[in-house]
Amino acid sequence: MVTPPDIVRAAYASLVVTSLSAARHFWVDLLGFVVTYEDARSLYLRGYDELTHHNLILRSGPEAAAGALGFRVRSGDDLARASAFYQALGCRTERLPAGTVRGTGEVVRVEDPLGFLIDFFASSAHPQRLQQRYDLRRGAEVARLDHFNICVPDVPAAYSYYSSLGFGLSETIEDGQTLYAAWMYRKQTVHDVAFTGGAGPRLHHLGFFAHEPHSVLRMCDILGSLSRQSCIERGPGRHGVSNAFYVYLRDPDGHRVEIYTSDYYTGDPDHPALRWSVHDPRRRDFWGNAVIPSWYTQASVVLDLDGAVRPVTDIAQTAEVTVGADGFTAPPPAPVPPSAPPAPPR
Amino acid sequence: MVTPPDIVRAAYASLVVTSLSAARHFWVDLLGFVVTYEDARSLYLRGYDELTHHNLILRSGPEAAAGALGFRVRSGDDLARASAFYQALGCRTERLPAGTVRGTGEVVRVEDPLGFLIDFFASSAHPQRLQQRYDLRRGAEVARLDHFNICVPDVPAAYSYYSSLGFGLSETIEDGQTLYAAWMYRKQTVHDVAFTGGAGPRLHHLGFFAHEPHSVLRMCDILGSLSRQSCIERGPGRHGVSNAFYVYLRDPDGHRVEIYTSDYYTGDPDHPALRWSVHDPRRRDFWGNAVIPSWYTQASVVLDLDGAVRPVTDIAQTAEVTVGADGFTAPPPAPVPPSAPPAPPR
Amino acid sequence: MVTPPDIVRAAYASLVVTSLSAARHFWVDLLGFVVTYEDARSLYLRGYDELTHHNLILRSGPEAAAGALGFRVRSGDDLARASAFYQALGCRTERLPAGTVRGTGEVVRVEDPLGFLIDFFASSAHPQRLQQRYDLRRGAEVARLDHFNICVPDVPAAYSYYSSLGFGLSETIEDGQTLYAAWMYRKQTVHDVAFTGGAGPRLHHLGFFAHEPHSVLRMCDILGSLSRQSCIERGPGRHGVSNAFYVYLRDPDGHRVEIYTSDYYTGDPDHPALRWSVHDPRRRDFWGNAVIPSWYTQASVVLDLDGAVRPVTDIAQTAEVTVGADGFTAPPPAPVPPSAPPAPPR
Amino acid sequence: MVTPPDIVRAAYASLVVTSLSAARHFWVDLLGFVVTYEDARSLYLRGYDELTHHNLILRSGPEAAAGALGFRVRSGDDLARASAFYQALGCRTERLPAGTVRGTGEVVRVEDPLGFLIDFFASSAHPQRLQQRYDLRRGAEVARLDHFNICVPDVPAAYSYYSSLGFGLSETIEDGQTLYAAWMYRKQTVHDVAFTGGAGPRLHHLGFFAHEPHSVLRMCDILGSLSRQSCIERGPGRHGVSNAFYVYLRDPDGHRVEIYTSDYYTGDPDHPALRWSVHDPRRRDFWGNAVIPSWYTQASVVLDLDGAVRPVTDIAQTAEVTVGADGFTAPPPAPVPPSAPPAPPR
C-alpha cells in the first residue's frame, strides 16, 4: 500500500454561487465571516480564530456547486505522497503552483475515488490574528472550519477509503445490516469528515465551529429579525452523535452550513468509537426533534477537475430516512410512561 | 359595573395526575421543582425564587385534569370584590376558609364565565427563601410560575372578560377578521394569562419562568440523557410573541408545561400592544420552525366546582392552525432570495 | 401627609459630559446604546427594549456632573401631586412644558430633600420598537434603565424619604447600629433606587438591565479587545444583594454605569425584605471578591435647579468600607476548613 | 540526542491531601468530579468526558503535596523511550508494573530535570462513558484534565527541557530581557504544561476543562451558596493568554485548581506563538482585573521518588509580580481618555 499523506485537518472549501452579492450578504453580513480577500468574482473568508488564509472560497458561477474541499497536510513531502497515493488509486491528479489557490502554497488537487475534488496543501499565508478582537465579532462568530459532511451512495466504501487515508472513527449510525453514517477525524475532534448515505457525490454541508451555544441561538435570532428565518433548515438542537449543539442553515444557493459547538476531544490513541443504533431517536437530535426530510435528501452537486458538474449516483444501500423514526412522517411525540432512570455510573 | 378584584399575578395551578409517583419523578426529579409539602395523595411544589407556599399542586385522581388556577390579589378586601364580581356575572362561587388550600389564607373559588375554576387568595405562608441556594438547583431551575395559557372557543370573548378584570394587552395574533390569540398581564411581564383558540375550556399549558436560556437547553439535555426525549413536544426556540426563549414539555399525564425565559417589562401605563399577523411565520417561533399539530390540538380538560370534568365546546372561530403556515403540513423551508434588510432605526 | 405621586419606575437620567464625542464613543460605539436623537450638544439614548424616548441624556458641559434623574408617573394627575408633595416639603419645584425635555410631556422638576434633581413625567414619545432587532444589537445589549444608585450621607434619612414616596424595601445591609445601604423599588424588580452611604448628594451609578449574563461578559471582552479595560472598575460578579450578575464601568468622565441582569420579581404585596449583615463578605459580591476602594469613595457630583454643582456633605454615619471586610485592605482569601452544608430546605 | 517519548497529553495528577473526607467534599460534592474508585485512603476521580480511568488521584497523607503528574504516551514503545530519555539526562527512573497505578498499564515514573515526578503510561482501563449523562452533571461539570501549571525558578530552562520533549510553544509573557512564563502543548489546545516563574519545583495549579463559561459562573455561585466563597482565589475572568474563561479555586489543603474553558485549536504544524509583553495589563486578565498576590506566590510542594518533599529553590530571574502592573499594589483603575480603535482588519 502506498503511504497516504499526513493530513492535519479539514481546512477550506470552495463553493460556486450564482450571485456573489447575495452570497456575500449571507456569509459576511449575516453569518459574520471575516473577509481575507475579495474581488469581482470571488470572496475568501475565514473564521475569527483561523490563522490560515481562508476557510471558504466563494466563486461566482452559472450553477451552484461545491468545488474543492481542502485538507491541510503536515509538510511539503506530504504533497508528493498525496500525488502518489491517488495515482496508485487511478485517480486524476493535478499540481497547482503556489499562489494558484490564493494565499496558499503548492496544491495537489485530485478527483478522489468517491468523486469529490480534494485539495491538499502544506503552507498558507497567515492573516491578521483576530481571536481576541471581540469588538469585531458578528453573526455566528464562527471560529474556524470544523468538518465536511458528504453524501455518498455507499457509506462502507467511504469509510474504507478514509480509513486508508489514516482517519480515525469516532461515531457511527448502524444496525446489524447497514452502516448508515460515520464520523471520522484527523484533528482531535469528533470529525473532519462525515458520510451521509444518499445520492452522491454531493456535499451535504460544511460545519463551522463556534465557541458557545449562545452563537448558535443568536444567529437564529438575527435571521428572524431580518425575516430570513427560512434560511434555518434544522435546529437549533443537541446532536446525539458528537454531542454538539448545532443549527443547519441554507445559503441563497441552497448550500448547507452547520454552526457547531461543544463536541469533544478524540486525541487518545485508543479513542473508542461510539456506535448509535439507527433506531435510537436521539442519534440525530438528542432531544428527539424530527429531522426535516430536505435535510436527508437535498445537497450540493460537486465539480470535477474540468469544472463540470459530476453526475450523481443513487444511493446503493438502505436510506437512513426510511428507517430512523425521525422524519416528518413520524407520529407526533406522545407522553410516555416513566421508565427507571439509568443505573448510577462507576 | 362591579369593581373587579385587584389581581397581582398568576400564582399557582392545580393538576390532577393519575400516578403521583410518576408525576413526582417528572416534576421533582427531572424538572427540579422544590417540594414544599407532600403526602400520599398530593404534592405542593414551588420554584426556587417563589416566596409563597406553592406554584403547583399535584393531586392523585382517576382522570388527568386541571383543577383551579390561582391568582393572588392585593388584599383581603379583594376577596370580597372577587365574590361580588362573579356573583354579578351569575357565576357559582365558594369561600374556602384559610388552610383549605394548604399554606394559603382564605380563598374565593369561582367557576368563571369561560368555564375555568379560578382561585383568588390574598395571603400565603412564606417558605424558606432558596433564591441563592445554587447548590440545590436542578433540572430546569424554575424560578416561579409565570402564566396560564388556556384554550377557549371564542378568543374575543376571553379577551373582553379578562379586560373587565383589569388585565392589560401585550400581544395578539390576528388578521382583519379574527383575533386568534392574545396575551394579557397584571404583573409587569408579557402575560399572566394567554388564550389559544380551540375547543374549551381546557388548559393549554402552565408557563414557568427560568432565569437563563441555559436552563431550557439543559432541561432538554437531561431528558435526552434519560431517554425521556419524547416529553419534549415543541422547541426549544425563540417565540415571536413575547420574545421569550422556550420549550414545551408534556408530563406523564400529558399536561403541558413551558419553560420560559427572557420576556420583557410591560409596566408602563401606556404600554403598546404588539400585533402579529397570523400569516407571519415568526409569530409562534421567531426562527420559523414548524409548530407540531399536537401543540394546537391537545390540552388538559378542566374540573368544575363539583370536581367533575367540564364538557368541552368546539372552537367557534377559524382555527389558527388552519391559517398560519407553520404546521407540519407546511412545505419544507426553501432558500429565499435575499431581501433588502430593514432600514436602520431611529 | 400629602399624597405622593404614583411613581411607575426609574426611567431616565441626565449626565453632563466634558467631551460629547468621547462620551458618544463610550456609550454608543462601545456599550451599544441606541441613539434616539443627537445634535451638537446632546445625545438622547435608549436601550433596545425601551419604549419611551430615552433612558439617558448626555449633555456637553464644562464639568462632569449628574443632572436630573427621571421617574415616570402613572398619569398627568401625578404631576400635580408631585408638585404639591415637594412644595409641602419646602423644596424648590419647576414645571417644564411638554417638549422642554425632548420627546417628553410636561415635567415637574424638583430639588429633593436629599439634594438631587428629580424629574417626574407622565408621557413620552414612543420610538421605534427594537426589541427583536437582534441584527442591531451591539456591546452590552442594554434593554432599559433599571435603577439609580445614589450616595447619601444619611442612609436612614434617604430610606424614610423614599418610603414616604411609596417605595418598597427589597434588601438592606446593616448591623445592630447602622443601616449602611438599602434597595427600594416601585416597579416589580429589586430596585428603582438604592442608597450607598457616603459624601452626598452624589450619583453613585446608573444601572442598566441586560437580558443575559453573556452580555456582561461580552462587554468586558470588547473593552479588553480595544485596550479599554481600565473602564472596568469592578466585576464581573454575582451580587449577594439582588442576586444580579453585574459589572461596573466608568465612562470617560468617570460616571459609573452598571450592567445588571437576573434579579428577581418583587411585586407581591407582602414581599419580604432581605437583610444582609455588613459582616457577610458575600453581600456585595456573592463570590467574596474584594470591592475596590474607588467603588466606595468615587461618585458623580450633581446639579441643582440653577445648573450649579451642589456642595457635598460628608458621610454622617459609619462608612461600610471601614466595616465590611471586602476592601483591598482585606487579607487574601485563604482555604477554609469545610463546613457542614446548610440543611436541606422545605 | 535521545528520541523523546511521543507524549499525547496531560492525563492525570496525584495530590496528597491531609483530610480525604474534606477533599472528597470539595472535589466530588462541590466541584462534581466523577468517582471511578475509592477506598479509605484514596480517591480516583475523572471528568464527565474522560475515557481513561482517572484525571486525579487524591491520597491521604500527613502533609499536603503534589505527587506524580501523568502524561499519556502513544504506545508501549514510548515507555522504553521515556526511560532511555531520562536515563540519558541522569534522572532517576522507575518502571511500575501494570496496575501499580490503579486502572493504568505499565508506568515509567521519573524525577525530571525540573524536580517534578512525572508518570508516563500508554494504556488505561476505560470507565463508563458519561459524556451525555447530563442528568448526572454537578458543580463545575468538568470534562477532563487540561493542563499542569508548574512553578520553576528558571523559565527558559523549563522551556528548553519541554521543547526537547517535543512540546510546541503557544504563548509567552516576556520582555527584552526575560521570559516570565510560557505555555506549551502536545494535544491541539493551548497547553498541556505551563511555567510560572517562582520558587520551585512546585505545582502552581491543575487546569480542568469545562465546556461552557456557564460552568465557571455556576461553580462560584454554588460556593457562595454554601459560604465557601473563600475557596475562590482569583476570577472568574477572561485570560489574555489562551483567551480562556477561567476561575482559580483552592482546595482545603490549598492545592489550586483552575476551571478553564474556550481556548483554541493549535494543531497546525506552523502554529504561530503569541508573545505578550509583561507590561500588558491584559496578559493575565484580559479585563485588567488585578491578580491577587497569593496567586503569584503560593503553590503546592512536590514529592520525589522516595515520597519525600522536594526542597524548593528560589526564583532565579526577575519575578513577574514585581514587573507586571497587575497586583494589589497597583493604583485603582482610572478612566482613560478614549483612544482611537484599532484599524479594521483584513
Walkthrough of the structure:
Four copies of one chain form a homotetramer. By secondary structure, chain A is of the alpha+beta class. Chain A has one domain: 2,3-Dihydroxybiphenyl 1,2-Dioxygenase, domain 1 (Roll). Helices cover 16% and strands 33% of the residues of chain A. Chain A contains six helices and 18 strands. In chain A, strand 14 and strand 15 form a beta hairpin. The longest helix of chain A has 13 residues, at 213-225. The first copy, chain A, is globular and about 50 Å long. Chains B and D meet through helix 4 of B and helix 4 of D.
Number of strands of chain A: 18
- Supply the helix-strand structural class of chain A: alpha+beta
At CATH level 2, the architecture of chain A is Roll
Strand count, sense and barrel status of the largest sheet of chain A are:
10 strands, mixed
List unreliable stretches of 5+ residues of chain A. 327-346
Summary tags:
homotetramer; 346 residues; alpha+beta; 2,3-Dihydroxybiphenyl 1,2-Dioxygenase, domain 1; 6 helices; disordered C terminus
List the helices and strands and how they pair.
The structure is a homotetramer of 346-residue chains.
Chain A lengths: L6 E11 L2 H11 L3 E5 L3 E5 L9 E5 L4 E9 L3 H12 L4 E4 L10 E5 L5 E5 L20 E11 L2 H10 L3 E7 L4 E7 L7 E5 L4 E9 L2 H13 L6 E7 L6 E6 L5 E6 L12 E4 L15 H5 L2 E2 L18 H4 L23
Parallel strand pairs in A: 1-4, 5-8, 9-12, 10-17, 13-16
Antiparallel strand pairs in A: 1-5, 2-3, 3-4, 6-7, 7-8, 9-13, 10-11, 11-12, 13-18, 14-15, 15-16
